[in-house]
């Protein structure tokens, strides 16, 4: 399988290419008051607000720095029977690598449902990020709140 490789701290992670809608450069984000610390803010994507989460903070590492190779990875996230755009702020996006399915081991990390199986290789260990486990139901409700109908 092909994965987009990036770093959280000094560790390598990958996201399946099939989960990615597009990759965008970092842009200014509108902050969301009262949101969890790992919510980086809202991205204005052609006039539509897209919530962005900081993968570093979600993983318990310090907030990601903005580097030349920091990107916002946009995925189609299932919510309420539809697909919604969700941005993932990722440091040091390195590019695409091929990971053999039989090279993946383990079943993830207890307490971190977004972290999947791990593969070793010439470049070092790489752990998969599983989009379905990124957000709790409470955070999904906060980020994808439906607007009140107009009277």
Automatic annotation (TrEMBL):
GO cellular component, one term: cytosol
GO BP: chemotaxis; signal transduction
Matching InterPro entries: CheW, CheW-like_dom_sf, CheW-lke_dom
Pfam families per the UniProt record, alphabetical: CheW
Protein name, per record: Chemotaxis protein CheW
Domain of life: Bacteria
SMART domains for this protein: CheW
Domain CheW-like: from-to ranges: 1-140
């Amino acid at each position: 399988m092909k994965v987009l490789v990036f770093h959280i701290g000094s560790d390598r992670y990958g996201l399946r290419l099939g989960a990615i809608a597009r990759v965008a450069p970092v842009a200014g984000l509108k902050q969301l008051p009262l949101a969890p610390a790992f919510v980086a803010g809202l991205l204005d994507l052609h006039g539509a607000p897209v919530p962005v989460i900081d993968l570093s903070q979600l993983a318990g590492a310090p907030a990601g720095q903005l580097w030349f190779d920091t990107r916002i990875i946009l995925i189609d996230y299932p919510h309420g029977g539809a697909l919604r755009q969700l941005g993932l702020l990722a440091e040091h996006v390195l590019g695409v690598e091929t990971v053999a399915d039989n090279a993946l081991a383990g079943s993830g990390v207890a307490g971190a449902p977004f972290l999947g199986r791990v593969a070793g290789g010439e470049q070092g260990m790489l752990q998969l990020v599983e989009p379905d486990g990124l957000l709790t139901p409470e955070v999904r409700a906060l980020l994808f709140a439906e607007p009140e109908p107009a009277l």
